[in-house]
Design brief:
single chain, about 20% helix, alpha/beta, globular, 6-stranded mixed beta sheet, Coagulation Factor XIII, Chain A, domain 1, about 35% strand, Rossmann fold, 4-stranded antiparallel beta sheet
Amino acid sequence: MEDIVVRAENITKEYKLYNSEMDRLKEAFHPFKKCYHKKFYALKNVSFEIKKGEKIGIIGSNGAGKSTLLKILTDVLNQTSGTLETKGNVAALLELGAGFNPDYTGMENIKLNATLMGIPQNQLEEITEKIIDFADIGDFINQPVKSYSSGMFVRLAFATQIFSDPDILIVDEALSVGDIRFQQKCYRAMDQLMKNKTVILVTHDTAAVTRFCKRVIWLNHGEKMFDGNTIEGLHKYQEYILHQISDDKSTFGTHDYDDMLDGDVEVERDERKESIEVPDVVPGVYNKGNGDADIYQCGLFNDKYEIIDVLEPGMKVHCIIRIDFKKTAARPIFGLSIRDRLGNEVIGINTETLGVKLESASGKVEYDMSFTVPPLNKGEFSVAMAVANGYQDDHVQLCWLDDALVFSVPRREFDIPGLIYINRGNVKEYVVKEN
């Protein structure tokens, strides 16, 4: 049986909310214990188990209870009820400033944290060198931490925690502060140094969760909504967010979307002369929009309108979708995105970014978007597609299908890593003359 390093059972965190400090005093001294507060549950009966070596992503919108849960896991907060068991040393990179004394230098904070983590004195010098090298903040290592920028701070904080060799590493949104090079450096470190350790990652970056975590826990208003496969969890979370956006735009009809934007190219609707068989949407692909439109058929075609599922870079491809508009869309937008096998978005386009204005739509309509396949490397890819109503920065999702289509790109002359394939180039050799 695999080791369970974190076991949470019915974790609840309750806060008492008062309208004023006077109400707090009234409740404290009331002879009959009259209640003047309202109960707020930051967490409510949250249960889960984490096995040794798992990489877990915790997702949820602001106020979902993610930070509260992490603070309980690190003993910063105590739960109101429920039980929590952790096995091994826990290192946490939560809020900027937590665990560091701002008046101490970076070097002094390294030694302080190493002592608190129980690192033996004979290992301290070696670990300190690794931390300084990884953080790469130069002479600032001997300056007070309060003089650091947020990026420098998180570099030192992350390096200090990961080189303390914890059994469980908890990382909050702090990594988003660093630049892209440091973020990539952090994920490589978590891949290598934390290979057999447990990592709990809290972030709004779905690409990071997809790349690093095989399991996600989705929290919403303090309750656990999902615990399982990353891709499935992110789909459910994105579906919820899309519905929330649609609900927030209940006054959508007050906008005049019949007005054209400057630079729009209006598309005239026509009847296709040739008959094209477009496949039905495969079972199991669900509509994540508000239901006012339904994409019921879609496919990828070459220039002869033959259906294809193997795409060559540079090939002209037609993506044809057929939509049933349940309600009239005054200003429809059609778009698609190509994703790799991990769900990372490679490219996304829509009619707005192409400068194309579609006519108002109702009933059954077909869209034919053509594009040239970018220089993708070999592999399997999926196509997500959506139809909205409105403008690029102000719209309602009518229908959103993840993984509606799949295609592959064959291996080229050389087997190289990465998403993009670079064709053979030229190299010239020169002799460098010494001055």
